[in-house]
Amino acid sequence: MSRVMVVGVARYLGARLARLLSEDPKVDRVIGVDVLPPPSADLGAIDFVEADITTSAINKAIARSRPDVVVHMNILATRADAGGRVPQKEINVIGTMQLLAACQRSDTVRKLVVKSSTAVYGASPSAPALFAEDMAQNAMARSGYEKDASEVEAYVRGFTRRRPDVDVTILRFVNVLGPAIRTVLSEYFVLPVVPVVFGRDPRFQLVHEEDCLDALKLATVESRPGIFNVAGDGFLVLSQALARAGRLPMPLPTLGSPIVRGLMRRAGIADMDSVQTRFLTHGRGVDTSRMREQLMFVPRFSTVDAFDAFVEARARGGILDRERVAAVDQVLRSVCGLDGRQAGLDVIE
Questions:
Q1: Residue 33 in contact with residue 5, Cβ under 8 Å?
Q2: Side-chain half-sphere of 189: how many Cα atoms within 13 Å?
Q3: How far lies 1's CA from each of 26, 152, 301, in Å?
Q4: Distance between CA atoms of 87 and 76, rounded to whole angstroms?
Q5: Which of 5, 134, 149, 172 has minimal CB crowding within 10 Å?
Q6: Higher pLDDT, 148 or 260
Q7: Distance between CA 339 and CA 320 in Å, rounded?
Q8: Where would I find the beta strands (DSSP E) of the chain?
Q9: CA distance 16 to 20
Q10: How many CB atoms lie within 10 A of CB 64?
């Protein structure tokens, strides 16, 4: 009944979504696009097209495949995903411009779904208790991924004015967590000793990886145009999350110091930039009324459920493996002069 192109299938969520859509009876064909093939060959009945989103190759891919629906999953949240800040911005901003130009030229595309982020609202001590969808343009997106996400959405709004015949759905997800996905936040919570800002206990929301995929699938196969915050019910504050994960906090004046960033970089398990530093200092909350009333999506997992699913998988060894624990322990030895056991930390075997 429809041909769906998923852009960004080399990464975890893109590959999972392509597989999920290929099994849906409402979808006739799934075309997966990326510069590299997905890491897993078992993606269901999808056709893979190798194309660089930052070049005119994406225009050729759309012209040849003639999709009805395009799902833009290739917006990278961290520099490590792209190999640095410069290529990250090129993929996010230039890549989106190229993709939108290709969709604008197409005579078959009738729907565009964009995976965005609540990072468009920024994070600051003066932020409101809850951000609603219409507050993004007045929020302060200072740098990095926050700014990229804001620019991407600005280009998408321009596209909707040029192609009013195309339904456009923007899903602004809070941090995605769960048993399998690995993100900056999941890497942060598996540190044996977790740096936190002294006197701060930020609150945040999460969305389970399965709910993230379900929301994307719903927006793809149904007609739900608009902009929607997507988050599980409820909040966690950082101290509660650390307690649930069995982690020990290490209060510091700031997370932005070279020592903290060097510690994480040497451990090889975190990409702590200024965007993440502000989020883990001030937190963020979003209103999900529109998600329920207009997107008509109700998450199966609350924020606490998503975090507990992550912790349970970590405890089974699904995310935190021995090599990565050993790497962190070695850094603690060199920085603090002692290992995790001597410090009384919870180092999982």
A1: yes
A2: 27
A3: 6, 29, 30
A4: 10
A5: 134
A6: 148
A7: 17
A8: 3-7, 29-34, 46-50, 69-72, 111-117, 167-173, 175-177, 193-197, 203-204, 206-208, 226-230, 236-237, 248-252
A9: 6
A10: 11
| 8-state DSSP, 120 | G
pLDDT, tens digit (0-9, with 9 covering 90-100), for 52-61: 999 999 999 9
- What are the Cα distances from residue 156, in Å, to 163, 169, 244, 288? 10, 10, 39, 21
Domains defined along the chain, listed by start: 3-174+207-230 (3.40.50.720)
What is the distance of C-alpha 138 from the center of its chain?
22
- pLDDT category, 338, cuts 50, 70, 90? very low
For 143-147, the CB contacts below 8 A with 24+ separation are 143/274, 143/275, 144/79, 144/85, 144/273, 144/274, 144/275, 145/76, 145/77, 145/78, 145/88, 145/92, 145/117, 145/119, 145/273, 145/275, 146/119, 146/120, 146/122, 146/275
Q: Tokens in use for 245? A: 């994960």
Q: What is the CA radius of gyration of the chain?
A: 20
Residues 198-253: pLDDT tens digits? 999 999 999 999 999 999 999 999 999 999 999 999 999 999 999 999 988 989 89
For residue 302, the one-letter residue type is S
- Its sign, for the CA torsion 108, 111, 117, 120, is positive
Read off the tokens for 283. Answer: 């937190």
Residue type, 80: A
Cβ density class 11-43: b for 16+ within 10 Å, e for less: bbbbbbbbbbbbebeebebbbbbbeeebeeeeb
Look-up: residue for tokens 């208790």?
A: 129
